[in-house]
Task: structure prediction
Amino acid sequence: MLDFVNFYLIPGIVIGSIYTLGAIGISLIFSILRIAHLAHGDLIALGAYFALFGVVELGWSPYMALPLAMILTAATSIGMDRLCYRPLRRMRTVMVIIASFGVALMLRSAIMLIWGPGTEVYQSGIQRPMIWAGLRLQEKHLFIVGAAVVLVALLHLFLTRTTTGKAMRAVSDDPDLARVCGIRTEAVIRAMWGVAGCLCAAAGVFLGLDTQLNPLMGFSLLLPMFAAAILGGIGKPYGAIVGGMVIGIAEEVSTYPLFGDPLVSPTYKAAIAFTLMVLMLLWRPTGLFKGRVL
Amino acid sequence: MLLEARDIHGGYGGDDVLRGVSLGVDPDQIVVIVGPNGAGKSTAMKALFGLLRVRAGSVHFDGADITRLPPEEMAPLGFAYVPQERNVFPNLTVEENLEMGAIRRPDRKRAGIERVYGLFPPLRERRQAPAGVLSGGQRQMLAVGRALMLEPRILMLDEPTAGLAPVVIDQMFDLIQEIHGSGVGILMVEQNARQALEIATHGYVLVGGANRFQGTGRELLDDEDVLRSFLGG
Result:
């Protein structure tokens, strides 16, 4: 039982936290712009590499480099929207989705050009876990889950307590009425990219902490993150929290050797997210929860 | 005239829906636009508010040309608009909806909310409820309240009584007169044309996207042609 918790459930919660942060961003972007943002994974990778810059060039710890990565990734997101998506705003949304695929390739190539195509780590060596009542707890895992909880709580406060957050929900509800009220939609979209960029950077840094960095790290996150967003109901950031956790835990737990052999070979882990996403789209395309888009 | 449209032409991108609409509103007037379905009444309002492209003609507010101004710049001028449908944010609470009405002047938020609650007491009781669960009448109150947040000088209402129960319709007309009494010019499209013209100071009859008749509310009510053609005998 403890082995199940230590080697399947805890890793599932950790990767679930990372998926959650990505999926919330995907849902937030969809709720405002009605697009599937295909560059989201590569934006996450870029965030991880921005923190690597802090670690390698400035000698900071990855935890200290997180705020730097957030600022740089938020700025990149806003700039990317200004250059690549905003000129297409009045066209059909499929144009923006295809543009986001192009942005994904550009970001990935930029990472390879700047940091090289190889694998990188923030800290080399093995961290010894603390053992607490039989639970193997690693400092980085506690940090990842704790920080994810704090970020989600801050996002909730932002959306419900600040004028900009409320305006974001208003634009998501009805963009035309928002303009009639006097809301400057473009300013709201910029703020939205800033928030999504910060969440991307956090997801990237956490993934880098948990495993390692490589230029394709974000791309491989794209499928489980979209699965998580769809599970929670795309366009509903609160649903994405549950979606991210379900996908993360399902992926890890699916490899548990309940009858001696792993239930699903770890090689097929990625198929779990895919299967859940397809089943969800067939069964309830609007997600697990009713109502409330944001 | 505080708000004045001169010979506007325009539409949604295809053929023009508006083919020469002219009208004006001052703060001491209640102006009603009547006309058959498809005459372009709602479209004219959208054109005034910058929600669709005006191909020819001009819209002036307080002497300034606002023909090409985007809709989000109207509220700060003192020009407010309540669309016919989808005029509240269903997932925002009542109070958050009102807050959105004052987004360009946060300093006036508190006073505005109190004023609207004073005008529509039921909204105060439901301040934390999502607007999507309100009754039709309350939702309409909220939509009007939101538009009043910045104390506009001109308030444009598109079918404010659509879908309301007869008792609530009477209340709504009383309210519109009360709002007008506080110095707000009203421009409205109304399906209850007869009732609307009773309280109107001026009326315009639109047909085929152009002005057909205009006059005081009384003149239109007394006009045989108008009566027969548009007010159902």
Observations:
- Chain A touches chain B through 22 residues (CB under 8 Å).
- The mean pLDDT of chain A is 92.
